């Protein structure tokens, strides 16, 4: 009977597969032998493999450009990176190697862009799409960027009041966009998104407040669907409503020439993940073209703002199993050396599932376990791989601690990884602050390739120290 961990994975999934393979019973992630990294840096450890970011950007750009060529679409595609998914400098500097534009969501994002421009990573001509509900500081920063010559800074109105605020703050001519408040998917607890302006208010807003104001030029219509870009009736329906509104507006607003379809390309959160990106890009481009042609309106430039898709698949978190605890006949806990709640807050907050795999011991038998984090919170656990509905890991030797050693995994520790964790976890959970039970933020390393293609690593941050926490706490 095949009872090894490697059998379980290769019989349940297509394996090996893009991003994951096994050599000598140890896992390789994006071409990186993880045991080498663990031997060098220990656990708990966050890793980011930078080349994956550029790879994903280039793939998406290719899908859209191929779709545009196939449909003989008469306008261009622009890739924007949505900074809120990860603001780290090492992420932005990799993203910007790919001639990418930026979408912002708050005032400080614009200060961040200034730093990137000073370091010659960002060009003043690039698009800066300013989304989000805007407080005065954000409006002032937009005005500052325009004054400093960031000519393609485009505030996207989230509400009608923002137009007056911009009018008061901005001294130059200013391109603007409008965000449509999309209808939420039927299962959601609200009907209409609180973000953006209602469909019916958009044309009156243009006619009464924008058309005759020489300062503003309405260039862009934007919508973002919370559930992401999915091949569902709901998504296609929302997209077609948005394109129809674009056409109605274009007929009275000749300067309108861009449609921003937001973020929402999904990433692999399970080894059985299947998503036809190419088809989706082709279908989106074809729908926009068809509706525009039917309405006799020129096709708009298409903008996307992929966050998760840009950075998610570049990162992972690696843990060791510190100890195994059997709490009853059915509940066997593998205790990790950190916390799920603090390192991957989405696992707790929205039951987000990530790919979870053993890093070593793939030749051992497997067993079903629950994974426990170290905080005292009963919610600090992880127990469900998306396709298996449970977590299976190589079997751990169930010997009791001896007099000589309390640590019964000394010789053969089990390491595990949660993968494709690069988006939103630090934005949501905070970074380097105070977290549950004073759990320190793990060490973080960056992995890249040198000019010869050799793998190199760089320590981005040490494990958080008690001193940094006590300082924050006022000691
Ligand atoms: C306006 C807007 N654009 C882009 C994104 C990025 O979405 P994703 O990370 O799913 O690509 C978001 C996410 O909340 C958003 O609100």
Please write out the topology.
Blueprint: H1 5-12, E1 20-23, E2 26-29, E3 32-33, H2 34-41, E4 45-49, H3 51-70, E5 77-82, H4 89-95, E6 101-104, H5 107-118, E7 128-130, H6 136-147, E8 153-157, H7 161-169, E9 174-179, H8 199-210, E10 216-222, H9 233-252, E11 258-260, H10 277-295, E12 301-306, H11 308-311, E13 315-326, E14 332-336, H12 340-343, H13 345-349, E15 355-358, E16 366-372, E17 381-382, E18 391-394, E19 415-419, H14 425-429, E20 443-449, E21 455-461, H15 466-472
Parallel strand pairs: 4-20, 5-6, 5-12, 6-7, 7-8, 8-9, 9-10, 10-11, 11-12, 14-16
Antiparallel strand pairs: 1-2, 2-3, 4-13, 13-14, 13-19, 15-19, 16-17, 16-18, 20-21
The structure holds pyridoxal-5'-phosphate.
Pyridoxal-5'-phosphate binds at residues 82, 85, 103, 131, 224, 228, 262-264, 305-309, 423.
Bound molecules: pyridoxal-5'-phosphate
Within CATH, the superfamily of the largest domain carries the name Alanine racemase
Helix fraction bin: 25-40%
CATH class of the largest domain: Alpha Beta
Class of secondary structure makeup: alpha/beta
By CATH, the architecture of the largest domain is named Alpha-Beta Barrel
Q: What is the global morphology?
A: globular
Q: Tally of extended strands? A: 21
Quickly count the domains. 2
Radius of gyration: 25 Å
Question: How much of the sequence is in beta strands?
Answer: 15-25%
Number of helices: 15
The low-confidence parts are: none
**Which fold name fills CATH's third level, the topology of the largest domain?**
TIM Barrel
What's the mean pLDDT score?
94
- Largest sheet geometry: 10 strands, mixed
